Amino acid sequence: MSNLEQTLSIIKPDAVERNLQEEIKKNFIENNFIIKKEKKIQISKSEAEDFYKVHQSKPFYNELCNYLSSGPIIVMILEKESAVKENRKLMGATDPTKAEEGTLRKKYGISIDKNSVHGSDSIENAKIEIEFFFKF
Ligand code: UDP
Ligand code: MG
Questions:
Q1: Atom of ligand 1 minimally distant from the CA of 88
Q2: CATH class belonging to 4-42+72-133
């Protein structure tokens, strides 16, 4: 039975700034994700606030939105069987110091805020996030 899903991935400013995008994309491809769409953009603070609105009550919200809008990012639609869960597994824990060996955040993350990648956390949110970045 096929369970093909799409999820939204972001290569965050800290990784783009270090020119890690090709290296990170190689990890997705080696793990059998198909990059269906991809673009390099820089978003405004208000777009970042909209994207991360679920976190608006958190103490780190303002810094998070400043950060995501601070430089270019790569947004991608990734496709694979169970893509949402598989991408979260490949990314590792939010805090790179707690992320498992071999995960993207362990390999590339600098800190809990500069953790190099974003991935949708549910199928429902994947749809919303894909629509957010790839509506046309
Ligand atoms: N974040 C932060 N400080 C924290 C927790 C999270 O700066 O204490 C940032 C971090 O960049 C994280 C993002 O907020 O990736 C969204 O947080 P979430 O809990 O949704 O983590 P994720 O789903 O990205 O693993
Ligand atoms: Mg999250």
A1: 25
A2: alpha beta
